[in-house]
User: Which sequence fits this backbone?
């Protein structure tokens, strides 16, 4: 079955001094969604940015914002992130004992609830969350940094999640994040990913539009 592939460039790789120009260039290059990596220095070693920058991004584009919360106990920030203009809010299964409650709250806020799993987490762990998720994010690197290499075993999990979604008749978006480039995108879409996050793969490309087009092809 042919599935429509969408690309979400990760703003973690943008030039924060020229964010407006970078966002405009991504829009022109055919980005479908913008991926926004919020890191707290606890759930992941790195600290990236928080609410004020998400708000600024919101003011700079009409594209949907896909907020990836690499944050311990993300339930603390769901309402604020919704108010800042997130369209998709994704929490990590590993970051909270109450992933189900998080998904419900995100839905109540009128946003698309996403659940993410790290490379070491089995898809089985989220089986009973799938009914409440509008998006499943399979991390294909360990979260925290851009520019890492794909962990191949994560692709088996993409296939497994695809099977689980199809079995339950779920139309949730299947997102992958980490190591995606124009050259290797097929490795991710063949097992069933429909939304490709790409940071360095888009930003380091000589021609961003060509890179995005190739990922979608
Ligand atoms: C990693 C972040 C990613 C990151 C991807 O923790 O979640 O979204 O920006 O970067 P690349 O595409 O360079 O692997
Ligand atoms: Zn991300």
Assistant:
């Amino acid at each position: 079955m042919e599935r429509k592939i969408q690309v979400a460039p990760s703003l973690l790789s943008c030039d924060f001094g020229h964010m407006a120009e970078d966002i405009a260039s991504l829009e022109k290059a055919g980005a479908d969604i913008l991926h926004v990596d919020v890191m707290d220095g606890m759930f992941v070693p790195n600290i990236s940015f928080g609410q004020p920058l998400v708000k600024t991004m919101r003011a700079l584009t009409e594209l949907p914002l896909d907020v990836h919360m690499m944050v311990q106990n993300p339930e603390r920030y769901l309402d604020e992130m919704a108010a800042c203009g997130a369209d998709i809010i994704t929490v990590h299964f590993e970051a909270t004992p109450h992933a189900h409650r998080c998904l419900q709250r995100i839905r109540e806020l009128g946003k698309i609830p996403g659940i993410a799993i790290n490379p070491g987490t089995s898809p089985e762990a989220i089986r009973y969350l799938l009914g409440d998720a509008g998006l499943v994010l399979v991390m294909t690197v360990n979260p925290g940094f851009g520019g890492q290499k794909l962990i191949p075993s994560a692709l088996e999990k993409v296939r497994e999640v695809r099977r689980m979604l199809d079995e339950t008749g779920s139309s949730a978006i299947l997102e992958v994040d980490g190591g995606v480039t124009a050259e290797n995108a097929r490795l991710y879409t063949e097992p069933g990913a429909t939304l490709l996050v790409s940071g360095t793969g888009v930003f380091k490309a000589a021609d961003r539009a060509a890179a995005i087009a190739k990922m979608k092809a």
